[in-house]
């Protein structure tokens, strides 16, 4: 995943990075094009995928057997389906992930400060709805 530094650093020259042979499981679709340069919006895509993996314990697009299948799914405009596990997904978090995975217009993805703020807000709502679950974690 690219470094997410610019939005929180006083040094606005901080850059995002990308490595060769990145996996389409976490990489924003627009970065798969020749000459594409990572930016804060592609970081948001990757961060959304990381959240999905942390909460579910499964890689994004885990149902795909190989990377070619993931490329096909992304080419069709598909993003990961909402998992069916109970008590881990609250609507505000899933809505946020869907915004992080905006495929057609990456510029509409929220900035990282908004993502963090909405996650904190969702955590407060979740704690109110499921206090035992949150305190046991």
Keywords:
mainly alpha; Transferase(Phosphotransferase), domain 1; 5 helices; globular
Condensed summary:
The protein has 137 residues and is mainly α. 44% of the residues lie in helices and 0% in strands. It has a single domain (23-136), classed as Transferase(Phosphotransferase) domain 1 (Transferase(Phosphotransferase), domain 1, Orthogonal Bundle).
Q: Can you put this structure into words, describing what you see?
A:
The chain is an all-alpha fold and 137 residues long. The protein has a single domain, classed as Transferase(Phosphotransferase) domain 1 (Transferase(Phosphotransferase), domain 1, Orthogonal Bundle), CATH 1.10.510.10. Helix content is 44%, strand content 0%. The chain has helices at residues 40-56, 67-75, 91-100, 112-129, 131-136. Helix 1 crosses helix 3. It is globular and about 40 Å long. The chain starts with 39 loop residues before the first helix and ends with a helix. Mean pLDDT is 79; it is low at 1-19 and 130-137.
